[in-house]
Amino acid sequence: MRKTIAIILSVAALGLNGRAENKVDFAKSVQGIFEARCIDCHGSKKQKGDLRLDSQEAALAEVIKPGKSGESELYKNISLPADHEDIMPPKGDPLTKEQIATIKQWIDEGANWPKELVLISAKDRAAAEAAAKKLPEPEIKEAPVSDAEKAAIAKLASGEGIGEKFGAPLVMALAQNTQLIYANFRLVGKDVRDEHLAPLADIQNLSELDLANTQITAAGLKHISNANNLTKLSLANTSLDDAALKQIEGLTNLMSLNLYNTKVTDAGLASLKNMKFLRKVYAWQSGVTEQGAAELNKALPNVDVNLGFKLAKVEPKKEEKKEEKKEPKKEEKKEVKKPEEKKEPKKEEKKEVKKPEEKKEAPKPEEKKEAKKAEVKQVAFNKKCPVSGKDVDPAKLFAINFCCGNCLGDFTKDPTKHIAKVKGPDNKKCPISGKDIDASKQFVIGFCCGNCLGDFTKDPAKHIAKVQK
After folding, report:
1. What per-residue confidence (pLDDT) applies to 181?
2. How far apart are alpha carbons 33 and 122 in whole angstroms?
3. Are residues 207 and 249 in the same domain?
4. DSSP string spanning 265-315?
5. Which key words are in the record (predicted)?
6. What whole-number distance in Å separates Cα of residue 263 and Cα of residue 280?
7. 404 and 285 share a domain?
8. Is 60 helix (H, G, I), strand (E, B) or coil?
9. Judgement on whether residues 320 and 400 belong to the same structural domain of the protein
10. What is the pLDDT, as a whole number, of residue 392?
11. Does 383 map to a domain?
């Protein structure tokens, strides 16, 4: 019987559109590589070089350019020779050729990364899984494969009725030597509606189902209301609301439910209270509140309701702004003191002879040093604004600091190579080495106005190529 279902899946796969068949699934093929080799140094606990790779938002803003692996710093660095100083990961064996090829293909295909999926290190995941193993799990019994199930699998795998433009859902055996099925509609989601889920009603061995990005309604979920072997379900990025959870409240073996970016509220969570094996609920950007999550925890103490609050942990830019604000305040105070010193000698003309004594005061040499620093900051590398092409205003500057002349030289030779690591103006860590900066080693970019400076600050990589001497 197992050979039969394997043959069905293999034959059906021959008719798949190439886009759907070969496209890299992030959760299945890329997530494991990142968690095993990247997150220890670039996750929520540690951010070497101020780089994070644990969320879509952080990674795609830093070192990954969707559709362009050749311009993505991540791909460049993992492809370097093993003895190169910039290779990633820096410790242990380099990634295998297969792993590098998988990441390249994933980036070139658009770097599709479910926004709700936040990564943790392999060590942390192993610890979490070890703890989870101590909890009771559902008894999943594989059902005999009926003729109706064979026909349903073949129909889904062919993409019949969904639209040849986007191919077909990915339907495959969950693992070797099992009848359990994994079905993924995410890649063809925009064309998927309630009627396309009808074949699922005949697949008794359905174990994992991804309906993210689809156009389904609560009525469509009736087709999986009796999927007793279903343990993992994603409804992310759909318009489903509380009524949808009513349709699946009988799926008592469900262990993971993704409600990211849906209209589900606290009231809808009440439909989950009988799912005693439920361990994960992803409810970020939904209508679920912390109070609603707490109520579900009362009924299901072992469930973890993720509301997405863990993403905004590191905010170095705020610290930099505070420091920038302090500097002008000190200068303002010194400017106020100068008039007071001048007023004193006005009382007696004879005291004008004492002017040389004022030169001996300690604050003035410091003021001169600060003035010199200010002069350095005012010298822009470029003469024309990289955004508008107009002449530079010496007062509108974006300064990038480095730890040494070598790093400054490397950046000056090829700014586009390192700009992704720059975390705003007047950074405190060298974007190349990650070390503390030397304030005298700066690359200063000039702009014609505050608007252009603001545009550059939001997206330096977009304009850096136009910075020319």
Report:
1. 94
2. 9
3. yes
4. BHHHHGGGTT-TT--EEE-TTSB--HHHHHHHHHH-TT-EEE-STTS----
5. Heme, Iron, Metal-binding
6. 18
7. no
8. helix
9. no
10. 86
11. no
Confidence at residue 412, expressed as pLDDT on a 0 to 100 scale: 85
Sequence letter at residue 363: P
The reply to whether 332 falls in a domain is yes
Show the domain range for 105: 2-133
**Number of compact structural domains in the chain:** 4
Q: Are residues 153 and 119 in the same domain?
A: no
Q: Give the CATH number of the domain where residue 245 resides.
A: 3.80.10.10
Q: Where a domain ends, among 350, 377, 404?
A: 377
pLDDT at 464 (0 to 100): 87
* Distance between CA atoms of residues 148 and 143, nearest Å: 13
What's the pLDDT at 65?
94
Tell which residue, 257, 219, 256, 264, has the closest CA to residue 238: 264
Residue-by-residue DSSP string for 332-376? HHHHHHHHHHHHGGGG-GGGGGGHHHHHT-THHHHHHHHHHHHHH
Distances (CA, A) of 6 to 155, 172, 333: 15, 9, 78
- What's the sign of the alpha-carbon dihedral 56, 60, 61, 67? negative
Closest by CA to 234, choosing from 101, 122, 244, is 244
Residues (pLDDT < 50) of the chain are: 1-20, 309-377
Clarify whether residues 298 and 158 are in a common domain.
yes
What residues form DSSP beta bridges with 401? 442
Residue 140 maps to a domain: no
For 83, the token pair is: 């003895």
Residues 175 and 100 in one domain: no
Tabulate helix, strand, coil % of the chain (nearest 5).
Answer: 45, 10, 40
For residue 142, being part of any structural domain is answered with no
Quick one: pLDDT at residue 331? 44
The pLDDT, as a whole number, for residue 378 is 53
Asked if 284 contacts 306 with a C-beta cutoff of 8 angstroms, the reply is yes
Residue listed under structure tokens 């989601």: 189
What is the pLDDT, as a whole number, of residue 345? 46
| The pLDDT value given to residue 170 | 81
The two beta strands, 206-210 and 232-234, are parallel
